[in-house]
Known about the structure:
Shape: globular
Strand content: 15-25%
Radius of gyration: 22 Å
CATH topology of the largest domain: D-Maltodextrin-Binding Protein, domain 2
Helix content: 40-55%
Largest sheet: 6 strands, mixed
Number of helices: 12
Amino acid sequence: MRTWLRIAAALFAGAATMAPLSAHAQNFPDHAVRVVVPFPPGGTTDILARMLANALGAEWKQPVVVENKPGASGTIFSEQLARTAPDGYTLMVTATHHVINPALYKNLRYDSRTDFTPIAQVAAVPNVLVVNADFAQRNHIGSVSDLIAYAKANPGKVNFGSAGTGGANHLSGELFKSMTGVSMVHIPYKGAAPALNDLLGGQIPVMFDSVPGVLQHIKAGKLRALGVTSLKRSPALPDVPTLDEAGVKGFEATAWFGMYAPGHMPQALSERISRDVLAALRTPAIRQQFAEQGAEPGAMTQPEFARFVNAEMDKWAKVIADAQVVIQ
C-alpha cells in the first residue's frame, strides 16, 4: 500500500511540475523577445532573421528585437546562449556554421548536441557549382560529367575557390571531391567577394557559391552553372540540374539557416515557438521576401529539425575528417 502511495505521490508531483510549463508555453511571450544573430549586420543570416522577427512580432503582439553579436564563426555567442535560461526570451538565428563548427574547433566550451534546443529551420539557400565561362569554353565543359572527366584527366591541376576554410562553399567542394573521386585543390579567400572576383577574372576556374551571389553573372554569361547542390532545382535556375540529377547521386549541401534556443527547453515551449515560426514562414509576405533573397522558407516540425541538425553534424564531421580540414 505504501509503495502505491509513493508512486501516486510521484505522479502527482510530476503533473504539478509540468502544469506550469504548459501554462508558460500557452502564455508566451508576455514581454520582448531577443533574437541574436552571431554575425555582422547586412549578411543573409541577418536579413532573414529581421524579416522573421518582424513577422513574429506581429504574431506575438510583443517586440522581437534582433541583435548582432559576431565573432569566431558564431561560436562566441553560441557559448553565451548555451548558458542562458531556456525560457524562450533569448533565441538565436544562425547559419550552417553551427553544425560545422563542432568538427572544426576542438576546444568549444559547449556541447552542440545537448546545450541547444533546435527550434526550426528558417530557410535554405542552395549553392551552385559554377565555372568560369572562358575556362568552360576552352575545355569543352558544359556539364558536371564534363568537369569530372576533365578533373580526373588533370589531377591536382583544377583549383576551386571558397570564402574561407570550413565554410559551406568550401565543404561543398570537399564533398564533391569525395563523392566523385576527383583531385581538386582548395584555394581559400578572406570572404566570398574576393573569391568571386578571381573566378570571374579566370584566376580560379571553379567555385561553389550561393545562388543569389552568382545569379547575375550566370545570366550575363560570365559564369556557367553546372549544377545546384540541393535535391530539387532552384526556382531561380530552373534549367540547371541538381548535382544528384547530374550523376552525383545523393549529393546535398545547401546553405541553411536555423533558429535555436538554449538546451533543455521544455518541450511544450519549444514546440509552441516552432509552430509560430512555421506559421510566419508560410505567410505570403515572408515567402515573397525570402524569394527575393533566393531563399526557400523552412517547413520542418521541431522534432524533424532536431533530427536534421544531428544528421548534418554527422555528415559534415565526416567530410571534415576525410578531407583533413584544419583551421589555422
